[in-house]
Amino acid sequence: MEEVVTVGLDIAKSVFQVHGVDAEGVVVVQRKLARAKLIPFFEKLPPCLIGIEACATAHHWGRRLTKLGHEVKLMPPSYVKPYLKRQKNDAADAEAICEAVTRPSMRFVEVKSPEQQSELVIHRTRMTLMRHRIELSNTIRAHMAEFGLAAPIGRMGLQGLIEIVRDEADGGGDRGQPAGDRGSAGAPQRQDHASIRAPGGASGEGCGGPDFGGDVPAAGR
Asked: Is 173 helix (H, G, I), strand (E, B) or coil?
């Protein structure tokens, strides 16, 4: 077998596709590999250029293959797509990656370290929690509006609605302000159905409309 100089690697969760060519561009290897066989396969190859699309797990495999002495370059999938010559499948994708990684004008993505990826995980987790909190806040406001209760924008207004929900002595039904909170600035106010703004209004209040004004933490404003 001729020496492999460039490899296009189409990564996935369980099955990986390899497309390798020699210095003349002749296809030397084209095969599927199970996850457990990927590293042993590249351990047997001499140091070569490996192209991978910058998608899920790409940075992990980039680090693993770099430790074996290979030169790994990651590319945005949108930059690889123009080199796809036929119907999209694993073999065609690997071939396109192998072709794209040798282009002089190609732009590459730097392989991230575990520390860099850990910081990204923290930021993405925080954004997910913030999104879920806002969704839950809007759900509470929408449900309470159906009973004639609407609170001011912000955490204090939402807290007033939460206290009503927690009040076991509250008998239910349509009502206005809680007896002990009437007149307070942050207390929920009774609204007629016609006065509740529709989704997409200026404030985003009522009827399940988005409420991004006051329930977003200060760090996220």
From this structure: coil
Using CA atoms, how far apart are residues 69 and 42, in angstroms rounded to an integer?
Answer: 10
Q: Which burial class, exposed, middle or buried, applies to 4 when counting CB atoms under 10 A from its CB (0-12, 13-18, 19+)?
A: buried
pLDDT in tens, 22-68: 998 899 999 999 999 999 999 999 999 999 999 999 999 999 999 99
Beta carbons of 176 and 145 less than 8 angstroms apart: no
| CATH number for 70 | 3.30.420.10
196 touches 206 (CB < 8 A)? yes
Domain C-terminal end among 96, 112, 128? 112
12 and 69, same domain (yes or no): yes
19's tokens:
């497309």
Longest dimension (CA), the chain: 86
Which tokens go with 104? 């002089």
pLDDT tens by residue, 60-89: 999 999 999 999 999 999 999 999 988 889
Torsion, Cα 166 144 201 191, to 10 degrees, reads -120
The range of the structural domain enclosing residue 66 comes to 6-112
Q: What is the number of structural domains in the chain?
A: 2
Non-local CB neighbours of 145 within 8 Å, separated by 6+ positions? 191, 196, 206, 207
- Claim to verify: residue 136 and residue 184 sit in the same structural domain: yes
Q: Is residue 202 one of the residues assigned to a domain? A: yes
Gap between the Cα atoms of 173 and 157, Å rounded: 20
